[in-house]
Amino acid sequence: MTAYDDLMAHQRQTEALAQIAGRLSWDRETVMPRGAAAQRSEEAGALSEVLHARRTDPRIGDWLEAASGEALDQAGEAQLRHIRRSYERTQRVPCDLAARIAKFTALSQGRWAEAREADDFAAFAPVLAEVVALRREEGAALADGGDIYDAMLDDYEPGAKAVDLEAMFGALRPGLIALREAALGAAAAPVVSGQFDVQTQMRLARQLAKVCGYDMTRGRIDKAVHPFSSGSGDDVRITTRTSDDEPFNCIYSTMHEAGHAIYEQSIDPAYALTPLGAGVSMGVHESQSRIVENQLGRSRAFTGWLYGQLRDAFGDFGIDGPDAFYAAANSLHRGYIRTEADEVQYNLHILMRFDLERALVSGDLAPGDLEEAWNARFLRDFGYAVPRASQGCLQDVHWSVGLFGYFPTYSLGNVYAGCLAEALRQAVPTLDDQLADGDMSAAMAWLRENVQQHGGLYTPRELITRACGAEPSEAPLMNYLEQKFGALYPAG
Amino acid sequence: MTAYDDLMAHQRQTEALAQIAGRLSWDRETVMPRGAAAQRSEEAGALSEVLHARRTDPRIGDWLEAASGEALDQAGEAQLRHIRRSYERTQRVPCDLAARIAKFTALSQGRWAEAREADDFAAFAPVLAEVVALRREEGAALADGGDIYDAMLDDYEPGAKAVDLEAMFGALRPGLIALREAALGAAAAPVVSGQFDVQTQMRLARQLAKVCGYDMTRGRIDKAVHPFSSGSGDDVRITTRTSDDEPFNCIYSTMHEAGHAIYEQSIDPAYALTPLGAGVSMGVHESQSRIVENQLGRSRAFTGWLYGQLRDAFGDFGIDGPDAFYAAANSLHRGYIRTEADEVQYNLHILMRFDLERALVSGDLAPGDLEEAWNARFLRDFGYAVPRASQGCLQDVHWSVGLFGYFPTYSLGNVYAGCLAEALRQAVPTLDDQLADGDMSAAMAWLRENVQQHGGLYTPRELITRACGAEPSEAPLMNYLEQKFGALYPAG
């Protein structure tokens, strides 16, 4: 056994235990009896301690040092890179600080939920101040003299820099605002009407997931309040949700989560239960969910096929023909909530959070002033005013537990999806003909080949650059949005 | 922190992790995608290693020694007794032997399944020989000079001795055989006919579990191939099964598993996630499932109420009135399979396995001669011949992985249930009136008060003696069976 072998054996068990932790979360959100919450929290805490001890095991440092002299292949070097990065991060944060953060964030989420319920930002402000202070302390330890926000970002998108995101997002913003203005000034899109049987929606969800390439023998679909995908390798489960009065929530939640899940299912099995055996970053993960949901799933070609499926399943639902259905599936309208936003306004939500959270972290924005800053920015970018805190700065859970650096990966994912969709259309010229038949197989094969199979082998930026033949840029996303929504909502 | 506190903190985390392992098994049997089996096996193996390391942690020995001088209350002393017992057992078995057993039994179950499928005992005989040899070696290590079979038994029923069981079972056998002979010589019981909608059966299962006192806010019911109960404290789940053409499988599987689950749910919450926080032994556990299933659930009074529920749910199903229904729910007929056997013949199955496995362990019976010995004994006790090995000595999984000492706890559970039912009827004189209304609350309150709440506080024998006011004996069970089946199948 070489040091590398020892290290990987240790790591493999850690990854296996981490999969169990993921399964417990799935269980909690889908099947757990409601009276089990407190006991579960203790159980999950015990597993979490085991994982922490394994991840900070000082032998990892010794193995890493010894293994650095060994001759390894590309995958081996990439494994070491991931393990070294994680281990160094755990080494930089003092145990005492990590414990204080864990303790505070265990409670702060509840305080946020109460404040949101009461629409009372003032009640949440001191909690936010403490979370910001703790995370800044952690960020400073992680940054080791470098940029604090970049150090936070690195947790979700390894190697990403705020200055690059700022340039990308800055270039997107005027175009997004122009599209939003044009759309909200134009005639409203057609809307579906009627009742949509839940069982039928769930049957359709299973069918759609399979059409996308989701392997149901290595996964399953259940309902949950907030849709999510969970697990890696041969056990990747998704959840979705349904509304009684419209089918899009279920359809696009399912396709989005299927996109995430298919990514995990498509990684080279040789990487299973290793650091390379999971999606490489939040941004790349989001690109896989978004391209399935939006560039493919909300395309004119695919919605044409989907319309036929829905007519078969539900009969008449007030939409007259595939063009109207396409418009309904891509409608832009007023709304305050990020998770319900369309392709255009979603990014406006993220750009705003990116700027606000950087200001919180740098100290330019006092936590107590967040609501005012939020509302002013929202009015500028969206053109209508936030009515209450629960529909404004209290809507997302992220900041309540100090997840700074997480939000921008959503829009970065959309940017990556834009790049990949452009490359995909060049590689598969007959894509629309296939989508019009409800056939995603060529598209998914291309994504598997060029992105998904590689797991964590390349850095996120390398991966997208290799797949697209060019460095990632916001231009393809902007072109796509302008073409699509420019046609749906023509100016004047 | 005293040594006792340190020990209990360690133990509590171990118990929490053990609950997770139980949840993983539940997941595997109910919701796991079938393609996930190999990965799951690795995940469960990793958790198993963590548990093993925690349970053999040498600090436990130090804490136990230091804590033995501390002043503790009754519960504290009982905790130490449980922890000491488990730790000493792990210390006695050499690591190398434990590893050889784990390795062999990981494969032997598959070999058994193949042999059963092929009805080929000869193919399984050498596997059995090796399992017996390994378990004897382990038993000798555990027994430390004492009786090897008793050391095995102690794993499932702490403190039980084969010589006592032999006396109990020996006293039962002639009476059981006489009841079996009378029943099989008499007219057959009425049988149900018709189709029983699965959804309706599952609705009924939920209703029945609640009637028994199962708390659905701290549990759930799903379908599984083999019904089981899983978990302790606030997350105790059960599974059941259904047959299309008769309702008894679902009804009594549900009530049996609800009995197990209610025991776990009823233990004093102060013992949660400690050694006292689970059912005290296999035998006592089985007594709680059996009394709910049989002495209560198959009583004339309760089946009278149940008949009305089934008529409401399914309409006419070929049974004319509650007396016929009672007879149908308690029918004795030929059969070869333990898990499908009635209250009388079930114990004949166990008595036979108890004698055969002791002979295997002592060396009096060569593993290669098991089939012949089984078939001869079966013919003697049951009065009809075993047609093939899959319906004979290959029917149960237990011996394939060397679970010797496990079978007798099933009949011991029936014996305990007999004692408890007798005491219960004295404590609740109006029991039948309540059962006739579908009301089990007084019965379950008595069981909770006298048995269930105590968890592992007393030894199994102490617990039953305290509850019943007398040492356990087979006489109440035999009286109950003779009264019940003597009336259902009168001699001549």
UniProtKB/TrEMBL annotation, chains A, B:
Enzyme class: hydrolase
InterPro entries according to UniProt: Peptidase_M32_Taq
GO biological process: proteolysis
UniProt-listed Enzyme Commission number(s): 3.4.17.19
Pfam families per record: Peptidase_M32
Domain of life from the UniProt record: Bacteria
Cofactor detail note: Binds 1 zinc ion per subunit.
Record: active site: E257
SUPFAM superfamilies: Metalloproteases ('zincins'), catalytic domain (SSF55486)
Single annotated GO MF: metal ion binding
Reactions catalysed, as given in the entry: Release of a C-terminal amino acid with broad specificity, except for -Pro
Gene3D superfamilies: 1.10.1370.30
UniProt keyword Hydrolase, yes or no: yes
Keyword terms, alphabetized: Carboxypeptidase, Hydrolase, Metal-binding, Metalloprotease, Protease, Zinc
Cofactor(s), by name: Zn(2+)
Binding site for Zn(2+): H256, H260, E286
CDD domains: M32_Taq
Entry's family note: Belongs to the peptidase M32 family.
General function of this protein: Broad specificity carboxypetidase that releases amino acids sequentially from the C-terminus, including neutral, aromatic, polar and basic residues.
This protein's name: Metal-dependent carboxypeptidase
